[in-house]
């Protein structure tokens, strides 16, 4: 590539948030803060919401992301490298706090100039345009940005570039007489859908258990439970997004979680926040249709999952207990939605099963982890494997014991004939639990035992045989 006249070539100025990096440092600080000091973070955000520069510095003082893990935009990096090869000067000028700009620039430079926001001024929009015009002159620089806030800067620049624009944004820019050159592809809707984890919605089929256990097949009960499943799925997806945003740093250090849509930068954080809010409101609205008790169950689920995401998942043993409790809460929701009085037998069986699977989840993570330290974002280390194995086995035995005791009860005798078919189900259940625990111990599962359970052929056969026996013996 031919070098240009260094004295006449205009410098190329790049933004940081959403441009050099596929993220937003303000939102990174906010969500990191929500994981370590949620009350202080929310209070700070509310107090300084209208003072953006002060807010950025205050949140950065509470918690800062790891600069070396934040995903880069390789297309923008290539554009900057090309400018350097031409002999042009390259500057990094951002609305992010100057300290963060300097840290990131130090990792991915060199840059000929660096600037960022201070406590008194937010270096964005017209303020940034004025700063660059004062330094380089009107039309004396090229600029690569990504958002509406960059419009005044593009208007002052000789040439513009826009990082990963969506078609609607390009149309807006054209209406304003701007046609910056696109750099990179925009985020995709299918990546956002992946962040909702629709495969996890299968867990909400647990809401059907109270109806199945009570041998209820009426249309009213089934339709109410289906609506409850949709409500739980929407609320669960809302919380999955929150969990992913809180775990950005930890996920980026994980073998497979680093590829999640927000950790990898494939979907902007602000899009995730909007989707989470919308799904949360949808879930609660559907709960309201089912009545006050369902609203209460959903509210308990919401508070519990947020508590888990923000703190309890980092408390050893409490985390797996919470996971089991959240699964059990789904059964409660099914009973409330379907108008069924679920028996203590059902809850006594379900809770230890999912406590066992929660331990299997941690066993799998430890078996597949590299090194001897703590799991990213968790308080387990390799020496905990034996304890997790013991708890998973004891919980599995407890669940099978409860099931066998149930088979000997008058309730079971009134619902199943011959009742001894339940003993065969108990045996199949025992084999299934042994397989789940063993594969977790050996690290042969993916990181979610529920997903493994529905994709494992041998396990599916065991569950299908159990279901067939229950249908055969049901009265």
From TrEMBL:
The keyword Aminoacyl-tRNA synthetase does not apply. GO terms for molecular function: transferase activity, transferring alkyl or aryl (other than methyl) groups. Keywords: Cell membrane, Membrane, Transferase, Transmembrane, Transmembrane helix. InterPro entries: HAD-like_sf, HAD_sf, Prenyltransferase_related, UbiA_prenyltransferase, UbiA_sf. The chain crosses the membrane at residues 220-246, 292-310, 317-336, 342-360, 388-409, 421-438, 450-472. It comes from the Bacteria. GO terms for cellular component: membrane. It is found in: Membrane. It holds the Pfam family HAD. It is a multi-pass membrane protein. Gene3D superfamilies: HAD superfamily/HAD-like (3.40.50.1000), UbiA prenyltransferase (1.10.357.140). NCBIfam families: PRK08238.1. This is UbiA family prenyltransferase. It comes from Halovulum marinum.
């Amino acid at each position: 590539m031919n070098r240009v006249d260094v004295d006449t070539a205009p410098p190329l100025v790049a933004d940081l948030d959403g441009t050099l990096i596929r993220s937003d440092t303000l939102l990174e600080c906010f969500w990191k803060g929500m994981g370590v000091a949620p009350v202080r973070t929310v209070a700070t955000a509310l107090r300084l919401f209208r003072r953006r520069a002060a807010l950025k510095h205050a949140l950065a003082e509470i918690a800062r992301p790891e600069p070396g893990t934040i995903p880069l935009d390789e297309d923008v990096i290539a554009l900057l490298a090309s400018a350097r090869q031409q002999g042009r000067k390259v500057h990094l000028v951002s609305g992010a706090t100057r300290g963060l700009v300097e840290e990131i620039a130090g990792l991915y430079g060199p840059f000929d100039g660096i600037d960022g926001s201070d406590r008194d001024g937010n270096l964005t929009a017209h303020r940034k345009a004025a700063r660059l015009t004062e330094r380089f002159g009107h039309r004396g620089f090229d600029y690569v940005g990504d958002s509406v806030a960059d419009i005044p800067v593009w208007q002052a620049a000789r040439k513009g570039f826009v990082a990963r624009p969506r078609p609607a944004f390009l149309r807006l820019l054209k209406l304003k007489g701007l046609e910056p050159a696109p750099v990179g592809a925009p985020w995709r809707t299918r990546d956002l859908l992946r962040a909702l984890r629709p495969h996890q919605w299968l867990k909400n089929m647990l809401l059907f258990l109270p109806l199945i256990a009570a041998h209820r097949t009426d249309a009213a009960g089934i339709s109410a439970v289906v609506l409850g499943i949709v409500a739980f799925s929407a609320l669960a997806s809302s919380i999955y997004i929150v969990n992913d945003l809180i775990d950005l740093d930890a996920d980026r250090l994980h073998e497979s979680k680093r590829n999640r849509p927000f950790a990898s930068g494939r979907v902007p954080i602000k899009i995730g926040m909007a989707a989470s809010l919308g799904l949360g409101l949808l879930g609660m609205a559907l709960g309201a249709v089912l009545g006050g008790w369902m609203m209460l169950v959903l509210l308990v689920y919401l508070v519990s999952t947020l508590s888990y995401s923000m703190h309890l998942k980092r408390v050893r043993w409490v985390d797996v207990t919470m996971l089991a409790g959240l699964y059990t809460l789904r059964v409660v929701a099914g009973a409330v939605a379907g108008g069924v009085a679920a028996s203590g037998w059902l809850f006594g069986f379900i809770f230890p099963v999912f406590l066992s699977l929660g331990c299997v989840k941690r066993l799998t993570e430890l078996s597949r982890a590299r090194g001897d330290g703590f799991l990213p974002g968790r308080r387990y280390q390799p020496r905990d494997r034996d304890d997790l194995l013991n708890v998973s086995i004891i919980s599995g035995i407890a669940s099978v014991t409860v099931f066998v005791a149930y088979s000997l009860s008058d309730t079971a005798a009134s619902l199943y004939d011959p009742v001894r078919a339940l003993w065969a189900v108990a045996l199949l259940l025992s084999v299934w639990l042994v397989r789940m625990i063993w594969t977790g111990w050996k690290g042969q599962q993916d990181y979610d035992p529920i997903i493994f359970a529905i994709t494992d052929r041998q396990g599916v056969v065991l569950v299908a045989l159990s279901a067939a026996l229950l249908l055969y013996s049901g009265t």
